[in-house]
Every structure is written in C-alpha cells, then in structure tokens.
Amino acid sequence: MPYVIHLLIMVSIYSILALSLNLVVGFTGLVFVAAAAFFGIGAYVTAIVMTSFGFNFFLACIVGALFSALIAFAIGAVLSKFRGDYYTLASVGFNIIIYSVFLNWQTVTRGPLGIPGIPRPSIFGLSFSDNFSFLILASLLVILVFLACRFIEQSSFGRVLRAIREDEKAVSVFGYEVLYFKLATFVVAAAFSAFAGSLYASYITFIDPSTFFVNESIFILAVVILGGLASNRGAVLGAAVLVLLPEALRFVGFPPDIAAQMRQVVYGLLLVILMMYRPQGLMGEYKL
Amino acid sequence: MPIIETKHLYKHFDGVRAVDHLSVAFEKGQITSVVGPNGSGKSTLVNLLTGMIPVDGGEIVVAGSVRFTKIKSHEVKDYGITRTFQDVRLFEQMPVLDNVLVVLTERGVFASLFEKHSPYHLEKAEEVLRRVGLWGKRHELALGLSYGQRKLLEIARVLATDADTILLDEPFAGLFPEMLKVVVDICKELKVKGKTLILIEHNMDLIRELSDHIYVLDAGKLLAEGKPQSVLARRDVIEAYLGE
Ligand SMILES: Nc1ncnc2c1ncn2[C@@H]1O[C@H](COP(=O)(O)OP(=O)(O)O)[C@@H](O)[C@H]1O
Ligand SMILES: [Mg+2]
Prior knowledge:
The structure holds two protein chains of two kinds.
Chain A: H1 2-27, H2 35-53, H3 57-79, H4 84-104, H5 106-109, E1 122-123, E2 126-127, H6 131-154, H7 156-173, H8 178-204, H9 214-227, H10 232-251, H11 256-277
Antiparallel strand pairs in A: 1-2
Helix pairs in contact in A: 1-6, 1-8, 1-9, 1-10, 2-3, 2-4, 2-8, 3-8, 6-7, 6-8, 9-10, 9-11, 10-11
Chain B: E1 2-13, E2 16-22, E3 25-27, E4 31-35, H1 42-49, E5 57-62, E6 66-68, E7 81-83, H2 96-101, H3 109-113, H4 119-131, H5 147-161, E8 165-169, H6 177-192, E9 196-200, H7 204-210, E10 213-218, E11 221-226, H8 228-233, H9 235-242
Parallel strand pairs in B: 4-9, 4-10, 7-8, 8-9
Antiparallel strand pairs in B: 1-2, 1-3, 1-5, 5-6, 10-11
Helix pairs in contact in B: 4-5
The complex binds adenosine-5'-diphosphate and magnesium ion.
Magnesium ion binds near residues 42, 43 and 86 of chain B.
C-alpha cells in the first residue's frame, strides 16, 4: 500500500508536468524539449527558500512559480525567434544551460551534492508529512492545474492557440499578435511546471541536478505524446501509463532491478509503436 | 479615392524581381483585377500588401494617408484589410465552425482568455457558413473538406471579418460551376455593399464580367491598365498571356 501511494504521488507530479507541457506542444504546436528546466527551477527555488530562509512550502511554491514564469518570459522571447526543428534544438540548449547552472552555481545550489533536508509542507498546524496526506495535496494541485488548462483550452484564447499551431502566419493576418499568445502560454506552462518541481522537492526531501537533465524533458514529452496532444485527460492518462507501466513489468515476472532499467526501453518502444499506429496518441485530437 | 496604393513597390527573391517598381492604386468600392501570366508577381503583390513578406523597396499607402515601408501582418486587420490565399490556408485540424469563429472573437491575450464566443459571434458564423453552404459541415475538420469546399470556407472566413478591403488570390480556380456561381455572386454582393475587392484571376470572361479596372503584370512590371474591354483587347497583353 505505501508503495502504491508513492506511485500515485509520482503520477500526480508527472500529470502536472504533462498538463503544462501540453499547453505548449499540444495546443500551440511548439515541440519544446526543456520541461525539466522549469521543473528544476521550481524544485530548486522551493528547496532553497525553504531550507535557507525558512519559507513555508506554499509560499515557496508561489515564489518558485513566479521565478519560473520570469525566466520563461525572458527565454520565450528569444525562443520565439526560432521555428520548427530549430526551436526544438534551441529548447534543448536552454535545458542544458539551466542544468549547468544547477550543477555549477555551487554557492547557491550546492552543485552535485544537491540540497538535502527539504521539509514537507505544513500550513495552519496541518502537516503533510505522511505520504497519504501528501498524495491528497498533490491530487488537489493536479485538479487545480487540470481545471486551469481546461479553462484555457475552452476559451477563445485556446482556439487562437490551435490556429497558431495550424498556421501561424495565416492567423496573424486576421489580427492576432502571435508572439504575445505564445509568450503568455509559455509563461503559464512554466509556472505550472514549477508547481510540480515544488511538490517533487518537498516530497523526496532531496534534489540534485541529475533529475533535471534533457532525458527528463524527453520523458515528459513522451508522456504528452503518448497521452495525446491537445488533450488534458490524455496528459493525465499518459502520466499514469508511463509511471505505472515499468511497475507492471515487475508483476509479470521481470526481476526488480531489470524492471527499473526497463523504464527507458518501455517508453522508447511505446513511442515508436504509437507513431506508427496512432500518431495522435491515446486520446489526442491532433497529429504532429 | 484609392484605398490602397503602391509606389515603386519592389520585391526580389534571389535574383528574381517578383515585383519590380510597381505603382498601382485600388479604388474604394470597386473591383480591381490583377492579371498576368504565372510567375508575374500577383501573389507576391498580395503578400506584400498584407505583410506576409517584407517589402524590399518602395511604399504602400493605405487610405491616402498612412504610408508604410513595412506593414506587419497582424496590423492589416486594423486597416480593414483581409485576404484569401492562392494555396488555401485553413486551420486544418480544427472544425469548420472554429475556422470562422477564430476571426470573430477577441484579439487580445487577456480578453480572449475570458471569452468563449458570444451569441453574436455564433450568429455571424452561422450566417456566413450558410451563405457558402457549409453550415451542415460545421463540426467536421477543415482537412476533411473537398477542394471546392475548402475555397468556400476561406471565403466564409473573409466574409466573417467584415473587412472593407478584400484581396482574393485566385478564388475561382478549380471550382465546379455551382460553387463558382456562389463565389461570383458573393463578389457582386460585396461590391453592392461598398466593399473594395482586389481580384487575382485568370478567367477572362469572369474578369470582364466583374472588374471595374484591371492591371496587367508581366515579370513584376506593369504592362497595361484600364477598363477590361480595352485592355484585354490589346495585342501586347494577349501576347504576354500566350507567351512568345
Ligand atoms: N517565397 C518565394 N521564394 C522564392 N521565390 C518566390 C517566392 N514567392 C514567389 N517567388 C517567385 O516570384 C515570382 C512571382 O511569383 P508569384 O507572385 O507567385 O506569381 P503569380 O502569383 O503571378 O503566379 C516567381 O518567379 C516566383 O517563382
Ligand atoms: Mg499566384
């Protein structure tokens, strides 16, 4: 049972990451491979302000989101100059830069040593130190982010995003300043991803740079593509499948240490099969 | 008064002078056709006028006063200008209805976030989709439409914008007679409503029927201009069309 709760917490964290990334990849059509950068920024800001300045988790969460949004605003303005494959490559570059900041800015991040002893959330005497109550908190955040994404999706704003995805130049002729829409979406997605980082830092109570490298971004992208581009329910489903599937392998008889290694293989294989037979993902509306 | 004028407008693509020091004027409330052989720069002219590609030289004058050496694509709507595309550019993986709603709803980032679409927007979308006979297909994705229906959807999108100046890049090409008639009728209605039409077309009968004035381009340069009857009878114009 405790292990199931642990898995569900991980599903929650990846659901938030996938929901946020879906705004950028699924709705706006930008193949962004640096979700782990904002995930990491949220985690590091939360860890630092909680351990060094004694911030409450919830305040730390907000600070992390704001900081992530700020970075997204600056980076988004630069990234928007790129298109297609160049955009994707530039985003990888961004992730590598952020990763090296985590790794090398040792006075702040403690570099490869990582930051231990990050407290669990508590508010008004209510503590989320045991995993079950933490799961409830994480689920609440998933619901919050889910509703926000749905709100965006169903608004006129969401329709404009889809139109940008389909034909950026054509939509601009009808009076839309495409850059503003892209930037706004990017900033919101970065803030949401930072929430996932805050949850992660406080849940594991320890973070180090290795969690936030490009391979993690590819994993999050795989979650979005598997679940289905431009589908919020798909993002949650994708997170559940990709987090739980390697565990399921154990039940069908793979030894535990091999099953753990299988995560990479499984999601790689799933993606290849998916692209061949169902490019819109499990629940998606849109093909890349 | 001309609603749009170009002065020595110039655009080249590595070595090709697509639009070569072109000075033309489009009168308000009239249908002006731009004709010329393939590759003579007609679409490039439309792209320059709508900010789709940057101008290399010369000027665009809107409403007699606003002068541009460059115009941004998202600003052309503010001058009451809209267009269709020769290569039919729809929002493919979106329903037919959303293809129209997107040109009706709020343009601002924040305003659009707190709006879905108003009853007025939906009414307007229904009106224009019924006009081109696509209301029944409103829930289908644009990519599922036939070629003719796609062109009609582009026309519906243009009608929805209520723009005063409409640039149509080969709106009749490839249409079967019934659909052709719908588009021709729409052009006539727009003229009655006082809209300005800039029409790129190859069909000489339609040009005679619809145009008040025509410009003939050849290799990006102005070859002839005037009333359709006289211009289309000129030997040099006919030769430009038929080739050497
Ligand atoms: N994006 C582009 N890149 C390079 N050359 C172009 C481009 N667009 C148009 N051209 C060239 O400019 C010339 C005019 O093209 P175009 O305006 O499309 O002609 P028309 O619409 O009259 O058939 C042609 O020689 C064409 O090959
Ligand atoms: Mg053309």
